[in-house]
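Record type: ASSEMBLY
Status: queued
Input:
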Amino acid sequence: MPDAPGLELIAQEIDSVRSGTVLGTYHEHGQACLIVDPDAVLEALRWLRDTPGQEYRFLASLHGVDYLPAEPRFGVVYELLNMDRVERLRVRAALADPGGEALPEIDSAVELFPTADFQEREVYDFFGIAFRGHPDLRRILMPETYVGWPHRRDFPVGGEPVIFTYNEREVPRWFE
Amino acid sequence: MRQLRARDLLRGDLEGEELEEHVGEAVLTTRFDKLQAWGRSNSIFPLTFGLACCAIEMMSIVSPRYDIARFGAENLRASPRQADLIILSGRVSIKMAPVVRRIYDQMLEPKWAISMGACSSSGGMFANYAVVQGADKFMPCDIHVPGCPPRPEALIYGFNKLQRLIQGNPDPGWRRRYNAEGTEEWARDESTGAPSAEALEAYAAARRSLG
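Status: finished
Output:
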């Protein structure tokens, strides 16, 4: 993976193409990460994929994160891989919660990396992040009739209470 | 002695006291439904069907070490149309529940279901959005085998209980242990100890509703 100065060079070059794209960088635990503007994430990914000398052509993973109570709340993380040099680079976009029923939105990366199709559906399924321009954005793992975004941190855990000695006074007194 | 008697019987020489004795020893009388239940319980065809990690334990009951062939159930069928018994071996996710229910509905009568392990009986450790909290919510289960996962011996024990259930002689289990058989106070007349009029009425109504 790029070392810390290499990461800064990448950040500067992306910023020189479109200023304000890269909001920050960090390099820790041997992992390099670019924090980018969610509106410009496609430009950054395209630059990383197509620029000679970079050529991160493989999207190893795309996943969502809920950082509640941090603000902005959601994150979409792209793990890129250059298979020739075996270099990994993480691109992260932070998304604010629009509040209410509205979903946070970000551009779909399917046109750049076809593998993003199912992974974006999974992020949509569990976190309720809408991907603009996705060809077929619907639930992939949960039943299609399911209501709610189960991996958000404010989603109730669910299930049924189990009666132990410490909580038998609180849960319904089924034995009476 | 017995062989000699049998030879005499075939010749037609056996008669009188000896014939009575021989018939008493060699012939067993029973009701047809009992015979049928005995046959059914000893030739159960389980469905080849696994849901999760309990399925590993379920698979091993057909192995030589545990050998469910001793109880006549070694023939696992790959089609629900040919199976008598479905073993829910693992957690049932809410997306899988309609599939399991459909497979159960495709099985032909008479059919039975064993809920194996904590997850399929109660949701187990998966108290979350994705797992059905107990398979009884969408299909009837005859036997629940506790454990996480149950050992194959435990599953075979549950299977033996199912056999006794099919033969119309279910184990009272914990009811006997806690002296809880025939203890319904409202159902007995105080003075005579016989079933009360209300109880007889309720039983009659229940029987009518069963048809």
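Annotation: The CA atoms of residues 133 and 141 of chain A lie 20 Å apart.
Annotation: Chain A has one domain: 4-132.
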